[in-house]
Amino acid sequence: MKKLLFSIIALAVTFAVKAQWVNDPSTNTFIVNTSTDAGEIYMATNQNTGDTYIQWMSFVGGNGWSPNLQRLNFAGEPQWGPDGIHISAHEFSSMSEGVSMTTTTDGGVVSCFAAYDGHTYAVKINPDGTFPWGEQGLQLFGGLGFSRAEVIATNDGGIWVLGFDYQNLYLQYVNETLGPVVTISDNTGLKCMFGQLTLGTDNKVFVTYEKVGSGMYTNKSIYVAGYNQDGTQFSPETLLMAEQTFQSTYIHSAISDGMGGGYVYIWHPAFYNFNVYVFHYNQNGASTIMDTNGVPVHSPDGNNLYISADATVDPVTHDIILFYEQTDDAYQAQCKLYINRITPEGERLWNDGILVLDNGTTPCGGYLIDAFEYGGGFAVTYFKGLSQTSGSQATVEAEGFDMNGNTLWNTQMSSTTYNKTSCRTSTGYHGGQNIITWVNSTGGGPGGLYGQNIGQSGEMGEVTPPTPPTPCDAPTNFAGEPYYNPELDLSAVVFSWTAPENQPLHYNLYCESLREVIQIDGNISNYYQEFEPGEYYFKLTAVYEDCESNYALTPNGDDYIIIELPDHTSVPEIEYEAMTDIVEIHNINGQIVKTHNINELSQGIYIVKGVTASGKTVVRKIVR
Description:
Elements: E1 29-32, E2 39-45, E3 52-58, E4 66-72, E5 85-86, E6 100-103, E7 109-114, E8 120-125, E9 138-139, E10 147-153, E11 159-164, E12 169-175, E13 177-184, E14 191-199, E15 205-212, E16 217-227, E17 233-247, E18 253-256, E19 262-268, E20 275-281, E21 295-296, E22 304-313, E23 320-328, E24 336-342, E25 354-358, E26 364-371, E27 377-385, E28 394-402, E29 407-414, E30 420-422, E31 433-440, E32 448-455, E33 476-485, E34 490-498, E35 506-511, E36 516-521, E37 526-530, E38 534-543, E39 561-565, E40 579-587, E41 605-612, E42 617-623
Antiparallel strand pairs: 1-32, 2-3, 3-4, 4-5, 6-7, 7-8, 8-9, 10-11, 11-12, 12-13, 14-15, 15-16, 16-17, 18-19, 19-20, 20-21, 22-23, 23-24, 24-25, 26-27, 27-28, 28-29, 30-31, 31-32, 33-34, 34-37, 35-36, 35-38, 38-39, 40-41, 41-42
C-alpha cells in the first residue's frame, strides 16, 4: 500500500532575530556559567514564544547533584543572568534519579525530579523567573514513587508526569491542581518500570512501560496503555515487545508519531548481537507492527553491534528516522554512524541504512537527529572525536539530508577541541533553527555551557524561518453504502464526502482489504466503484502538491468505513421494472438537475424519481 502522507501546520510566530547567535564555529555562543562537572543537559523550545529552556545538573549550590536552568530568547540571548536559576529548595543525592523538564504552552518551564527525601516533585518557573507553584513545587503521586520522573506538556497549559518505585508506575495530570493518581502494576509479580510518555489526541496520554523480572539478566517485555485526564483508561494494555532476555539497564525510548500514536525503540542482544528494534502503536493504542519482536534497524550479524540510537519522526510521512552507531563486537572500538527509515507498518525503507560517518577506531558520540519542522528532510548532529587518546575531546558536526537520504549540506558547528559533555536532547527545529549545547569541561578551554544554532539549510547565526506549507486539510463526512444492480447482476459501493476548503489535486481511496489505492479526481466529492461480493475496509485522504491529508472522518468520528457486499446468490429476487417516464432528477446534494434525460448527465451520483410501465412511482439511485 502506498505510504500515507500528512502535513502539520505550526502556529504563525514572528521571532525577533538579533545578533547573539554566532556563525563562527571557533567561538560559539556562551549560554551560562557551570561547573566543569556539569552534565545531563536537556532542552526544550516553546513553540509559541520561541524561548528555549536549558536544564543541566551539577553539584553547585551545596544541595547535591541538583538541577539548574537557563532561558534563551530566539536570538540566543540568556534571560536569567550568567548563572541561571538553581533549584535549591530540595536536597538531592550524589547521583541522578532521573530528572526531566518540558516547556508549557503558557510560556513557562517545568522540572520534575525525585529528591533525597524519597518523593517526586514538579517545580514550575515562569519566564520572569518566578515560581508559580512555590520554590518547593508540587509533591506528586500522593507521596508515592521516588525514581526517574518523566514529564510531557499538554496543549492546555498542563503536564502529564510519570514516576515509579521499582515496582509500580504512577501517572498524574497536573494543571495548577493535581489530578488523580493512576497506578500501573502487574498482578503476576513482575515489576512495572521505566515508563515513557507520548501525547495522544485531546491531551490524552500514552504510557509505554516495561514489565521486568528479577536479576541483572532478566526477562523484559514492553506494553502501552492510554489514559484520560480524569485518570480513566481509554485504551487497554497492549503488548508491543514480546518477552526478551537482556540486561535490565537497557531501557526503551518513545516518540510521538504526529498522528496521535507513537513509536518505541530499544537496543538489546536478545536474538543475536545488539540491535535496535522498532515498534509502533496507533491513536487507539493498537500495535501496527505485527511482529512483537520488532523491526531491527539493521540486519543483525555476528561481528557488529548496533546501539545508541536517537530518533525523529518526519511530520509529513510520519515515518521514524533513526540515527545509530555500529561498533565491532570484539572490542567495541569502532565508530560508524548510520541512518535508517521505518514506516508505521514496519517497512524498513533504506535496507541496512545509509552510512553517515566512518570514524574508524576514534570515538564519537552525542548522536541526535531532528526532522525539519514542515517535512522535506532532517539533520543529524554528533560529537566527533579527533584521536584515540583525546577522551571526550571532540568537534561538533551537523549534516542535513532529504527524505531519500541524500546529503544536503555539512556544517561544523564547533571546531574547538575542548573536552565537551554533550547534551541529552536537542531542541528540534522551531522557527527554522535547532539548538545543540555542551559543557566545556577540561582541556584548557573556557568553562561553562556553550551552544550553537543550526538552520535547515546548514547555516548558523541568523536563520530565515521557513514558510509554512499550504494547509493539508482532510475531507469530512466520509460515507459509503452498498449498491446492487439486479439487471446487470453487479455489486458496487457508492462513496460520498464533503470536500475540504482547499481543493486537492486528487483523493486517495484506500481499499485495505485488497491493498489497493484508487485515485479520484479532486473536483468531485462522490464516487462509484464496482467490487466483487465480500467485506471491504476503506479510508480516504486528500492529496495536495506538498502533502497528503489525514484520513477523512465519518459523521461518527471514525477514520474508516466497512462495507459488506453480499454474494449475488444471497440477494433475494426482486421485481425490477424499468422507468418509462422520469419525473425529476436530484444530484447527491439534493439539488434538482435541469434535465429529464439521463444521457445528458455528467459523471456523478444522482437520485432519479420516475414512473414504471405499470404506473408505479419509484425512486432510484444511479451512477454515471
